[in-house]
Amino acid sequence: MLNRRTFLKASASAIPMATAIDALDPFSTLSAQETAVEANGEPAPKLIALPQRMPAIDPATQPWQQRIRRVGQTNMTEHDPAVMNIEEWADYWHSAEVDIVYISVTGILAFYPSKVPFHRHGKFLNGRDFFGECVAAAKKRNMRVVARMSPDLNWGDALEAHPEWAMRNKDGSAQFSSEEPRLFKTCMFSTYMDDYVPAIMREINSLYDVDCLYTNGWPPIGNLPDCHCAVCSKLPPVGTSAYWRVFTDRTLELWRKYDAIAKEKKPDSFYFANLGGNVRGGPNLDGLGKVAAWFQADNQGRTYAEAAVWGCSLQGRVCNAILDGKIAVNVTAGYSSSTPGWRNASKNPGEIRMWLNETLASGMTPYYHFVGAENGFDEDRRWQKTGVDYFGWTTKHDAHFATRRSIANIGVVIGQSTQLLYPGPATARSRAYMHETTQGIYDALLRGRFAFDFVHEDRLEPDRLSRYRALLLPNVAMLSDRQCEQIGNYVQAGGSIMASFETSLYDENLKQRANFGLQDLLGIHKAENVVGTNGNAYYARIETPGQAQAHPILEGFTNTNWLPGAENRIPLAPVRNPVLTVVPGFVRYPPELAYPPTSHTNEPAVVLRESGRSRMAYFPGDIERTYWITGHGDLLRLLHNTIRWITNDERVVDVEGAGFMEIFCWETAPGYTVHVLNYTNPDAQHGWIQTTYPLGPQTVRLKLPQSVKVKSVEVLQAGKNLPFHLENQILQFTIPRVEDYEVAAITVA
Ligand SMILES: [Zn+2]
Question: According to the 3-state scheme, what is the secondary structure of 536-577?
Fold first, then answer.
């Protein structure tokens, strides 16, 4: 494998030296010794000064929820009123120093003597006010209380009295829970949500001192509902943009209604709901971000389908894109959240900790969760120490974990409508298509140690985009004319972009355009419809192999004329001086026929443009996704080289050292934090973490704003101060060792 020094040796003869020495190691395999050599001898990427620090905020002026640092929940079962020791439950969460606990009101089963019709009492309640006793025990220990409801399911007697409450199949039959067929699914467009749910909320308000209202199980996450009831059958067809808009409008209407009910109790109360779903979300995330006082991410752990270790930090980036500093909280399951799962058995402690690490690193507030007091406090108790130890550690460093602003110079447009509604290209229809695309660009950005944020497609205003040197558009197929215009304005103002494949080929209604919405900006013209792969995918031919003028995106490619292309591509009309051209695909078997029918074409495999400070790169292939499904290092190198070229190799934070990691950098009230998540682990892409494999030294460099001085640099896991060097506002220090996670907390003067 190449490291930075051998890469430089190999490429120095082929490319201009000034460009070569700016290259970064895409595989991050430097040894400690090599890092030292580099620090002493070779120039590193251009460090761009951080912006002036934000003005100080008096925490006392913030809404109370902004000061929540730890959240706890024992998810109560119907049997818990018969067996749960309320004092033991409250003592545990108090010992974990949580600021707030979730207590179940529910809606499926009442945990208090509810008088709301069809709010069935749990069969072990026996008239007892279990909810009220729990609230009192929490309040006695100065913990706030979230009143937790579930509006998604109800019982047969409710269905008989209110057939209009049910979600319906096409044949008119009611939809039932796949696991418990006695429970029907309630329709969010029905009066169940307008009458039944508010009745419970008002009953709770009238009886108890709760701090806010919350619904679990609604709105849907990652998928849109498919209901054919009398109301829904009059709505636009499910799965269309028009339906998504109606769905979002209804969600926000109910959200505002419930929020107003919460505020009937006290003005600083609010309503919030279970959210998450990463880049897919559910309702439009831009709209949600505007109404939500608290973003609750139900992203509890890895599954076979969501196998990458960064599932939680990816959610954190989504939240950061839409909340403008409002609180985001992510649930970590202490129980086994796999499929199949064990809701009353503890998860691997290393996996629990990594999920909590990612929560903190990505700027969210950690929330620890176990199901069932009966088993959680009796049969399997292992999760308890993990939570108490972890939260005990964070308590010492609350000021450093409260983030104010992310430090990043690359914006990745997440394309929520594309993620939810676009079915993939005609040649590769698949629900996983955009998931693979996102994972591909995410993995590539981590391996290149780039500092990036997510950007929502409905938030492309100049004042949001101006902080980014470049925007990446990984197959953001659906973009409105207005969004295309905003991206054009961003480039006009000096920004750079990298786009791929069907980006802007569809409008916001998934209506295919005759040509790309960004065609003029990118200088591209679609010549034919998408071409897939039949056996052997296409190649990209290097047009100036071995010559001194080779383009910087080709750095490191020697001794080859061909690079892998991608699985699918859109044939483009020829451009002037293409850097890569398409060698069309052919069969893989039989090998006798595995050769190109045409070995040289004028069809571009990449289109590059420069205009003032702006650089634009467009790949006609689905390069990010193809990288993800093949792992081909050439595609990774091509992506890294291209991102470095469009950003002019500028960085806002530079972390050098061995290992595969995710990095977050934040401005905080005391100063700055640099978070290093160690993913150098055989379990990073599948399964749960069994063992940690620690990393050696990591050298961090940041360029601080004018006149900012450094008081201390402390590593919070190791618990010690580090020596640091500050010269010409460039701060440099070395984190000696990273176990699963380390946080360098910089305190400034
Ligand atoms: Zn319906």
Answer: ECCEEEECCCCCCCCCHHHCCCCCCCEEECCCCECCECCCCC
Q: How far is the CA of 153 from the centre of ligand 1 (A)?
A: 13
Q: Is the peptide bond before 236 cis (omega within 30 degrees of 0)?
A: no
231 C-alpha vs ligand 1 centroid, how far in Å?
6
Higher model confidence: residue 58 or residue 524? Answer: 524
Q: Torsion-angle region of residue 21: left (phi > 0), alpha (psi -120 to 50) or beta? A: alpha
The answer to whether residues 471 and 487 touch, using CB atoms and an 8 Å cutoff, is yes
Centre of ligand 1 to C-alpha 456, Å, is: 29
Burial class for 350, CB neighbours closer than 10 Å (0-12, 13-18, 19+):
middle
The pLDDT value recorded for residue 21 is 32
Q: DSSP for 99-167? A: SEEEEE--SSSBSS---STT-PBPTTTTT--HHHHHHHHHHHTT-EEEEEE--SEE-HHHHHH-GGGB-
Determine the average pLDDT of the residues in 322-348. Answer: 94
**Pairing mode of beta strands 496-500, 470-473:** parallel
Q: How confident is the model at residue 544 (pLDDT cuts 50, 70, 90)?
A: confident
CA 227 / ligand 1 centre spacing (Å): 5
User: For residue 158, how far is its CA from the centre of ligand 1 (angstroms)?
Assistant: 16
The answer to whether the CB of 445 falls within 8 A of the CB of 311 is no
The mean per-residue pLDDT over the stretch 275-288 comes to 95
pLDDT digits (tens, 9 = 90+) for 231-266: 999 999 998 999 999 999 999 999 999 999 999 999
**Mean local confidence (pLDDT), 105-128:** 97
Q: How far is the CA of 225 from the centre of ligand 1 (A)?
A: 8
Q: Which two tokens stand for residue 537?
A: 């995918």
Q: Concatenated DSSP letters for 473-492? A: ESS--B--HHHHHHHHHHHH
| Closest of 697, 704, 491 to residue 610, by C-alpha | 491
Amino acid sitting at position 523 = G
User: Helix (H, G, I), strand (E, B), or coil: what is residue 654?
Assistant: strand
For the chain, give me the number of helices (H) and strands (E)?
A: 23, 33
Return mean pLDDT, the chain: 93
The Cα–Cα gap between 222 and 520 comes to 34
Residue 403 half-sphere exposure toward CB, CA atoms < 13 A: 28
Distance 511 CA to ligand 1 centre (A): 26
Distance of CA 105 from the midpoint of ligand 1 (Å): 25
At 289, the pLDDT band (50, 70, 90 cuts) reads: very high
**What's at 240, amino acid-wise?**
T
* Cα gap 203→226, rounded to integer Å: 31
Q: Is 73 helix (H, G, I), strand (E, B) or coil?
A: strand
d(CA 384, CA 335): 10
- CB crowding 18-46: b at 16 or more within 10 Å, else e: ebbebbbbbbbbbeeebbeebeeeeebbe
Eight-class DSSP state of 293: S
Model confidence at 222, pLDDT cuts 50, 70, 90, reads confident
